[in-house]
Amino acid sequence: MHQFQPDPDPTLPLAPPRRLAVEWGVVLCLGCLSAVLLFWNLSQPYLWQDEANTAVLAVRLLQSGKPLAYDGVNILTNDNFAAENQRTIGERTGNPQVAVDYYIARGDLKADGTWKFHPLGQFLWAAAGIKLWGQTTLGARLPFVIAALASVFLLYWLVRSSGGGLPMAGLASLILTLNVYWLLHSRQCRYYALSGLCFLLTLLAYQGWRAGKRWGWLWLAVACWVWFHVDYGTVWPVFGVLFGYALLEDGITQGWRAAGKTVALGGGLTVALIPSVVYYELWGRQSVQIGDWAYRFMGTCFNINEFILPISLLILTIALLVLRWRQWPAAERRLVAVAAATMVAMIFWVPTVAPEVFVRYLIIVAPAGCLLAAWGLTRLLTPLSPLLPPLFAALLIVTPWFCKPLSALIDTSGELTGGAFLRSEWAVLREHIFATRPDPNRAVIDWLAANAQPNDEVLINYEDAPLMYYLPNPIRGGIPAFRAEDDARLPPKFAVMRQSVPFVHWAVFERELDRYSWQRIPLRAPDVIWGNIPDPMQGMLDPYHAEDLILLRRIEAPQ
């Protein structure tokens, strides 16, 4: 699509051979730093619920050729407790077929049990890792970390090939590499890193198409099609921005009659995606949203400002782009314009379609935020001194000062906010990557692996998917309370209860526990809602001061 030619860079007052050596030295340093932060301690915490959802579906894909949500024993649902019908729960907990029919009707899975709440791409990607490195924590996560590492290099390449100098490209990749929540999400067995890579590939293909590269339209269509099958929730606002800008660019530079090819490409891509839209039945999904639109909008603004790109810097970048529009080459201003428009579109898109306020819905476009930050700082400050852009980039990375004007006005709802001089994420980075923190899933799974027989049934109220991935046992319960009161099978031999979890059918679990006598097993496993969740919810995830969760073994009745 592009040829990377780093040599002619006027920002480096060096002879061409030395410029090339400096360039590749920067790339090598970025790669080493990124690799350490992405790969270090990668298999230490076990998969948490959402990761295990991806991994279990990948394993079933390898076994049956489909990502089966229901394999005849265990079921996976979209874990949206707000969408649960409380009136029918008693009919579903004892009859697995009734429960399966309910989740088919709700839109979680297709009639044959195939998962359709996410597209196939991430399951294929995870399945490749599990096939190569085994059904392990490392095997599940490694493909996504590789995608994240590739994103660091691809962002650098995108900036350089669009006319940005080495300082700008290096700063963009460095800001991405040191974005703590991008790192934590990238270390997950989940679509985040893969979708971010597809986003960058789409931008790269878009630049090639707009520059008139041979087969540029085909590369863009392929990139868009692949990205849709990795993450069909994020693509729509970006598609709108890309084709909207292309139409505007056509109309301004060549006249509106020249927009025919753009319309044809957009229409052809739409037609190509229609079969997939029909397959995933996107019109028939039920995902209840939490709070009203204003609540989700303010939460989205906070998350973008705090963890993606300070909105004050976004506004400054847009102003700089508009005021000096013709000062930069078309490829550079096109890239910056679509990146800025993408950030603005996401501010409105996410609260409209997402069920809750989570950073995970925005982290895919983090490379756009890093690109804008590097571009704005470089273009604004380099004329004053070449040392100012890296200095201000360091302040952006390390301190919360750029975020303060807006974060002071928004209720953070318990999420982390920066201190006076140091962003509090740095403590999170140390704890999640370089330390060994108490892991409830590892403790429970390792104990059950050593003490349970393969056919022993396990009742658990939440984080049931990790047990499905690591253990051969039938798993009942979870948010759907699936088979929690199923008398057709053996009664549960073990029960795992987290009292910290509010979003489950507690009455169902209490009824089932009351039916038998239990012995509590002493186990040092913190009772926190989630295991290795990457979202900034540290107030709910303190494993160091939490009570131990409840692990029970059923006492056999005397014969």
What keywords describe this structure?
559 residues, five-stranded mixed beta sheet
Mean pLDDT reading: 90
Number of helices: 22
The global form is globular
The tally of domains stands at: 2
What topology, given as strand order, has the largest sheet? 2-1-3-5-4
* Class from helix and strand fractions: mainly alpha
Helix fraction bin: 40-55%
The value of Rg in angstroms is 25 Å
Major sheet summary line: 5 strands, mixed
- Which regions are unreliable across 5 or more consecutive residues at pLDDT < 50? 1-8
Question: What is the count of β-strands?
Answer: 5
Order of helices and strands: HHHHHHHHHHHHHHHHHHHHEHEEHEE
The proportion of residues in beta strands is under 5%
Distance between the termini: 73 Å
Give an account of the 3D structure.
- This protein is mainly α.
- It has 2 domains: 16-42 and 138-433, no CATH class; 440-554, no CATH class.
- It has 22 helices and 5 strands.
- It has a 5-stranded mixed sheet with strand order 2-1-3-5-4, with helices on one face.
- It is globular.
- The protein starts with 15 loop residues before the first helix and ends in a 5-residue tail after the last strand.
- Residues 1-8 have low confidence and may be disordered.
